[in-house]
Design a protein that fits this description.
Helices cover about 30% and strands about 25% of the residues. By secondary structure, the chain is an alpha/beta fold. It folds into two domains: about 5-315, ANL, N-terminal domain (Rossmann fold); about 330-415, GMP Synthetase, Chain A, domain 3. β9 (about 240-245) and β10 (about 255) form a beta hairpin. α10 (about 335-345) packs across α11 (about 380-390).
Length: about 425
């Protein structure tokens, strides 16, 4: 993406990749994947260990990819502790120009070259153009967000005000003097800047386009910012992966980036769910410096396969819909989504499952609600036995018709009231 020249871009699309036939995109990604995996296994000892026994040549479809293990953030912390700083997952030949530290602690590398995190594409979709000045209010300290968005803006052909966080009055004075057209940062801080400018009599009306992330953008805030002259869209990514998906103005959902493969899986597993069902976002990033293969973000979303009305043809996701890590302590024992998924694997006649935790007096009550069409006598009792075997807890099982449980990605619902 970083190699696309300004002349090759249209005003509407960053490049031709955004509008190609979806089948062509799939063929391209999965024709590249076997060689990418082979190189990762040969150049990164951590991946050689994690993918031991796997033949990369056979990983050439979504079905084959789904058979590979999922890498979770908790495992990433362990790998980095055992083999600092990056757990052996960075290519040995890579030139690292910055090393970041995010809460966990988790260490992230920045490789050499422009737009390492692929931010230029969502900036372009947000309406920011070469020659614009961008006020970048993401933090530059230890974590990579400030550098991520600055690099993307530079790759797009913009200049950047490296504002960072805090010093609000100085920032609005700078906005009045330098008159940036674009803003990058959190949406709530953009509102703070606009409010502060009004309070102290500074002119911040030069800002017309904003690409925001790292905080919620509720419809009310988006509408307020638009009413104040700033058309605002959001993007979704992580410090590890870079950009995963981004919005285009006026379109529902987020468009998946061209250099990642996104799967939506049942929380606690690596099993893809059917289209439209809420699950955990798992991403394979085709980054030769820092390969991440089936990296579980811990975030919930759902896939939208239909092309966006804006003309971009990649799959879309519905944006952030909560966290997949729903581990809950019940009667002194932790129960996690993986255990609930294991119950489903042992009983193929069950569909969506939901463990509901309530209180009866001073005691926890565990009820496993299970969708099924089966009328087999004794099924509920059999599932109760499996529940006790897997979770080491007694609970009751309630069989319900398909479609009865909410499609919200919740596998464990804590409904206890301690009042």
């Amino acid at each position: 993406m970083a190699g696309v020249t300004p002349e090759a871009r249209s005003d509407r699309y960053f490049d031709a990749l955004e509008t190609r036939d979806p089948a062509e995109r799939e063929r391209d990604l999965f024709s590249r994947l076997p060689g990418f995996l082979a190189k990762a296994m040969s150049e990164a000892p951590g991946w050689a260990k994690l993918l031991q026994g796997i033949d990369p040549k056979g990983i050439n479809s979504r079905e084959a990819l789904a058979q590979l293990p999922v890498l979770r953030k908790s495992a990433l912390v362990e790998l980095q502790t055992e083999a600092p700083p990056f757990g052996g997952l960075v290519a040995a030949s890579a030139r690292i120009v910055r090393q970041f530290v995010s809460p966990g602690p988790i260490h992230e590398p920045q490789g050499d070259g422009p737009d390492f995190w692929r931010v230029a594409r969502p900036l372009h979709a947000a309406g920011i153009r070469p020659g614009d000045l961008v006020h970048n209010a993401f933090a530059y300290h230890l974590t990579p967000a400030g550098h991520m968005f600055e690099q993307g803006a530079l790759a797009l052909g913009c200049a950047v005000v490296p504002a960072g966080t805090g010093n609000t009055e100085i920032q609005v004075e700078t906005i009045e003097r330098l008159k940036p057209r674009g803003y990058t940062g959190t949406p709530d801080f953009l509102k703070v800047l606009l409010d502060t400018a009004e309070e102290v009599g500074r002119d911040a009306t030069s800002i017309k386009r904003a690409l925001v992330s790292a905080a919620a953008l509720p419809p009310s805030l988006r509408s307020e910012l638009s009413g104040r002259g700033v058309e605002t869209v959001q993007c979704y990514g992580t410090a590890d992966l870079g950009i995963v998906a981004y919005e285009s103005p006026g379109c529902e959902g987020m468009i998946v980036d061209e250099d990642v493969i996104v799967e939506i899986v049942r929380p606690g597993t690596g099993d893809p769910v059917i289209e439209g069902e809420v699950g955990e976002v798992v991403v394979t990033s085709l980054n030769p410096v820092y390969p991440l293969i089936r990296f579980a973000t811990g975030d919930l979303s759902a896939a939208i396969s239909a092309p966006s009305p804006c003309g971009r043809t990649n799959m879309r996701i519905r944006g952030w819909m909560g966290r997949a890590d729903q581990a809950t302590k019940i009667k002194g024992m932790f129960v996690n989504p993986g255990q609930i998924a294991e119950i489903g694997r042992r009983h193929g006649e069950l569909g969506r499952l939901r463990a509901v935790v309530t209180r009866d007096g001073q005691q926890d009550v565990l009820t496993l609600k299970a969708e099924t069409t089966s009328r087999e006598p004794g099924l509920a009792s059999a599932v109760e036995a499996t529940l006790q075997s897997v979770c080491k807890l007694r609970g009751r099982v309630e069989l319900v018709p398909p479609g009865s449980l909410p499609n919200d990605g919740r596998v464990i619902a804590d409904e206890r009231d301690y009042v």
